[in-house]
Batch of 3 targets.
Target 1
Amino acid sequence: MKSVILSSVLPMAVVVSTTAGMAEKTFAAERDKKFFQSVKGEWVGPGEIVAGKYKGTKFTCNFTGSTPDGKIGMSIDGGCRVGMFAQQMSATIQHKGREGYKGSFMGGAAGSGLDIIGGNVVSANKIVFTINRNQLRGVMQALVPNDNSMTVTVAVRVDQQLVPVIGMKLKRVDTLEVGSIAPN
């Protein structure tokens, strides 16, 4: 009798748990897509180096955010200026299946930047990525509290503590509609 009950209940339990897992992944994928869509467009604003050798250095940035066709992720391209000096900046992040999010900031660790080795979309308006270059470990966080502003913070790990080193406050300067109502 016990085996009859198990043989009829076990397949239902597997179906229910599989369906619940798929629903959770679908919800997460939709939340991630919503965040990346919110970053699309033109952004400008000030930033500052808040720790380290160049602490107190202020700069201004211009970025264009985009999303890859048919994939979950984003690219941000543009540059920042300090006085008459300009520096190209870019970041590319894509979801790579079971590997999670992977990408690069400023050409990755093989170039002059950092590798993005993991992370997740925390909510529809916040994302946190793990960054890495040799012994340097840290996080890059983007917060989009509304359709027209974004805050980006880069922090590095120093003695088991995350220390913010770069902060930017960006404003949207395009007319891109990012609401949830689809055009007719």
Target 2
Amino acid sequence: MYDRLLLPTDMSPGVDQATAHAIDAAQRYDADLHVLYVVDSDAYSSYPGDEYVHEFEGLEAALEQAGADAIAAITDQAADAGVETESTIRHGVPHEEILAYVDEAAIELTIMGSKHRSGEYRSLLGSVAERVVTMADGPVTVVKTPVDDD
């Protein structure tokens, strides 16, 4: 039914359960699993001033390394399960990059982790998963993980 699945990761606790779900789906459908990490450009480019240039370059590199580590952990799990993977790191606005990747790589099913939070929290901040679900043309499975709202 599906040949290409996508698992975006942001290293949050919600991704662990989504990873297991994505690997299981890839096994069931004998599909390739694409793993994507988006370095959020807002995280390192939202501060004005040249005095911060070196710190931003360091932050950007640290975020890239964290993403590479997260992808490696997932691809190792997938390899242990006999699932072929393709990994990518991109820069930009997370939901926009995820949706662009879905189109470019002809992804047939996106599997995302999401932290299950209270309505008040979600109405204030929203989520990347929510934006992807709302804006995606194809199917998206959201695997929720309960998180304490403290």
Target 3
Amino acid sequence: MLCQVGVGTTNPTSELEIETSNTGIPALEINPQTAPVGTADGQLSVIGDKLYMYDLTRAKWLSIESTTLLYGRTGSRTNEVLRLMGNFGNQNSGAFIPMDATIVHISARARGGNSTKQFSLEIRNGAGFVSSTIYNLAASEYINTALNIDINAGEYLIARIGSAGGNVTDLILTVWLKWRQ
């Protein structure tokens, strides 16, 4: 049985429709929670001051918003740190992560050189190593939309070109983060 609910309308065009007028009153209010228990994909909750959706595959609350980090190096390179946008990067720094986050997607592309070149994402805490995940290009590209790598507030995310297998040319790496509860 198809059931539709309309608030402010007797002819809803979706399962739930809230018809509003320009009164200045918000159409919907979700009161903030501190520790909701997620049980199904797509559940929504305001936690603190952010809107989160429960991701059943990753078994955690992730922010609706995502943050994109861009890394790259021009020229023929091997065994080097990729530069974070603005030509910033060395082995002891990188993108500072201000809140607990989860890396959910990455993509990489090279213009030439070794088409299966290895690269890595490193999580560091200042100068201290926390973890590293290694990837390989395939036909000069790499895409992974199912990542589930946690990174904690106060840690740094660094991207590095591997040392084995010759050089890679003009490597660019994009990393998508979602804030985690």
